[in-house]
Design brief:
311 residues; mainly beta; Tick-borne Encephalitis virus Glycoprotein, domain 1; six-stranded antiparallel β-sheet; four-stranded mixed β-sheet; elongated
């Protein structure tokens, strides 16, 4: 399941200020920019999470006005369902959303706040301790989003990491607010869809890994090796099987590529311990000997036939 989304973007400094109370995800005139990412629940089901950015034009008295200079509000939805930010900004009047618990007609839609300085650098955020959604499912709390169904983990939350430097500096991974167009330069999430087994690989160290269709791989087991103090003392059971004996000593277990243990070559066939050149020469010699013997027998038969004819 997705636990974190990492985002880096530029918010346009020369965009108009907007009234947050008028925000409506269905009306592009009520927000400045938006971007989406596919996230996954605990069952591997995909969902579309969308972030809407509103350049806050709220005045100190709650009326429209540019008191919130270089400050942006970020609203979130999952599959078009409004999702609050836990501990989100409540310093200004907010838009209303339907109450998913049906206890009130509407409730404030809690956003995150991103603040920039006059150089366009990211300086602070609300909540200061980290931006995380409320529970995406129905976890029994009053402000859960109820955006997940179908048996998925109802307590799942997703944090949004903007790489804010806790020391107040500026890093290359933080968002910016420059006088250029809105642009998302990095948007990643750590969830995965359902993966089905596509193959099994065995490494030189004997580690068996299962690979899946979603691009992941998991270690399953490690192939153990054994060696004997006297390998020549093993008792042969068949052409390819040998058994421990008193002469060989006890089996000493270990892992491939460690100590005196060798490597494991998977998907490889053992070559025959036969010298093909020598065997070919021996075959030619045997063939010539056979031909010579056959010729001798033929001559002997001819002589016997001649003697019989003389009589």
């Amino acid at each position: 399941a997705t636990q974190e989304v990492t985002m880096r973007m530029n918010l346009p400094a020369n965009d108009d200020y907007l009234d947050p109370t008028a925000f409506n995800p269905d009306d592009t005139l009520t927000y400045n920019a938006a971007t989406s990412v596919t996230v996954y629940d605990s069952l591997g089901e995909s969902h579309i999470m969308t972030y809407y950015f509103v350049k806050d034009g709220t005045d100190a008295d709650g009326t429209p006005g540019p008191d919130q200079l270089n400050s942006w509000l970020m609203f979130a939805t999952v599959d078009d369902t409004p999702v609050d930010i836990a501990g989100g900004d409540t310093s200004v009047p907010l838009p209303q959303r339907p109450d998913p618990q049906n206890t009130n007609p509407t409730e404030d839609w809690l956003p995150a706040r991103l603040n920039f300085n006059q150089s366009g650098d990211f300086t602070s955020q609300v909540p200061a301790g980290g931006i995380t959604t409320v529970a995406l499912g129905d976890d029994g709390t009053a402000n859960s989003a109820i955006a997940l169904t179908g048996g998925a983990d109802q307590t799942q939350t997703i944090s949004i990491d903007f790489n804010l430097d806790p020391l107040g500096g500026q890093t290359i991974n933080e968002p910016t607010q420059y006088a250029s167009a809105f642009e998302v330069t990095s948007l990643e999430q750590d969830g995965l869809p359902v993966g089905r087994l596509t193959g099994v690989d065995i490494g030189e160290d004997g580690l068996v890994r299962a690979t899946f269709s979603n691009g992941t791989s998991e270690p399953v087991v490690r192939v153990a090796l054994v060696r004997f103090a006297n390998e020549q003392g093993l008792t042969q059971q068949s052409n390819t099987a040998w058994k421990e004996s008193i002469e060989s000593g006890e089996a000493l277990a270990g892992e491939a590529t460690t100590g005196t243990f060798g490597e494991i070559n998977s998907s490889a066939l053992e070559q025959a311990n036969v010298n093909l050149t020598t065997e070919l020469i021996d075959m030619i010699i045997a063939q010539r000997n056979f031909q010579a013997n056959s010729r001798a027998l033929e001559v002997n038969n001819q002589l016997n036939q001649t003697i019989l004819n003389i009589r």
